[in-house]
Write a structure and sequence with these properties.
Elements: H1 2-18, E1 20-32, E2 35-46, H2 49-64
Helix pairs in contact: 1-2
C-alpha cells in the first residue's frame, strides 16, 4: 500500500503543478488531389486542483496511517 500512496502523492503533485495535459493534433483541412492543406490544433485536458489535492491527501493517508493486522 505504501507504493500506491507514494504514486498518488506524486501524481497529485504533478496535477497541481501542470494543471492539465496539452497535446497537438494535425488534421486535413483541404484535400484536392496532389494539393493538401493541414492545420495543427492545440488541445488541452484540464485537471481540477481539487482532484490533485484529493490524490495527495489520499496518498499521504496511505503512507502514514498504520496497517491493520489480520487476525491469525
Amino acid at each position: 500500500m505504501r507504493i500506491v500512496g507514494f504514486v498518488l502523492v506524486v501524481l497529485g503533485a504533478l496535477a497541481l503543478i501542470y494543471g492539465g495535459i496539452t497535446y497537438s493534433r494535425e488534421r486535413t483541412v483541404v484535400d484536392l488531389g496532389p494539393i493538401k492543406a493541414t492545420a495543427t490544433e492545440q488541445r488541452n485536458i484540464p485537471f481540477s486542483p481539487i482532484v490533485g489535492g484529493i490524490a495527495i491527501l489520499g496518498g499521504a493517508l496511505l503512507l502514514f496511517l498504520p496497517r491493520r493486522r489480520l487476525p491469525s
